[in-house]
Amino acid sequence: MAEKAKKAASSKGLLQSEELYRYILETSVYPREPEHLKEIRDVTADHPRAMMSTAPDAGQLMAMLLKLVNAKKTIEIGVFTGYSLLLTALTIPEDGQIMAIDVNRETYEIGLPVIKKAGVDHKINFIESEALSVLDQLLKDSENEGSFDYAFVDADKVNYWNYHERLMKLLKVGGIAVYDNTLWGGTVAMSEEQVPDHLRGGRQATLDLNRSLADDPRIQLSHVPLGDGITICWRIF
């Protein structure tokens, strides 16, 4: 099972050389990856949509970001089997809180036994729902504004900007939002004719998001070619 998980992870990168990506994983990522995260990669490996899981090298950077901002209260939009969720739960303090939102509890429950085994399930409030309605409900209470330290989004691409607008109100100044899949399999740099049919819809949404984030004066950002591309947004006002 471990080999299946490694194979799935290795194909996530956008580096031209699979050998170079394998070197990064085996030298710097896998040796420091907590055992419970390895386990959740293993249980996800046989899932037909295993490629949706967070790339472990991207996860390593996310763990560092969580520590740098001393994150305690976080929000996650899009959970899948819970790799990034478990990573966050392992990283934040014992009394930290994660609001995790996904429309599919079934996939979350694939990784839930591992999360419970790790002893961090008490930090997670899983909500089976469309995310926009949950965010809008949070914003009805002004006390929630500026109360979150960190957000991770790996969900429906057409709503990324809608999520961003709401997260800019929910995150504190100095908080971080991370958006996954912002290079969309490399298609953002392809001509329309080169894009595979199954990636066309997400490509346009990703192009629109990337332009909007680049123009957003509320954030400082870094577009990082890890996994399928992640964009890190630091709220500066």
Structure description:
- The chain is α/β, with parallel strands linked by helices and 237 residues long.
- The chain has one domain: Rossmann fold, CATH 3.40.50.150.
- The chain contains 9 helices and 7 strands, in the order ααααβαβαβαβαβαββ.
- The chain has a 7-stranded mixed beta sheet with strand order 3-2-1-4-5-7-6, sandwiched between helices.
- Helix 1 packs across helix 3, helix 3 runs antiparallel to helix 6 and helix 7 packs parallel to helix 8.
- The mean pLDDT is 93.
Walk me through the topology.
Blueprint: H1 2-10, H2 18-29, H3 35-44, H4 56-68, E1 73-77, H5 83-91, E2 97-102, H6 105-117, E3 124-128, H7 131-139, E4 148-153, H8 160-170, E5 171-180, H9 200-214, E6 219-224, E7 230-235
Parallel strand pairs: 1-2, 1-4, 2-3, 4-5
Antiparallel strand pairs: 5-7, 6-7
Helix pairs in contact: 1-3, 3-6, 4-5, 7-8
Low-confidence blocks of residues: none
Rg (CA only): 17 Å
- The level 1 CATH classification is Alpha Beta
Helical fraction equals 40-55%
Beta-strand content = 15-25%
Q: Name the CATH homologous superfamily.
A: Vaccinia Virus protein VP39
The helix-strand sequence is HHHHEHEHEHEHEHEE
Largest sheet: 7 strands, mixed
Strand element count: 7
Report how far apart the termini are. Answer: 45 Å
Mean pLDDT value: 93
Q: How are the strands ordered across the major sheet?
A: 3-2-1-4-5-7-6
Q: Please give the domain count.
A: 1
What is the structural class? alpha/beta
Counting DSSP H or I runs of 4 or more residues, the number of helices is 9
Shape label = globular
**Name given to the CATH architecture:** 3-Layer(aba) Sandwich
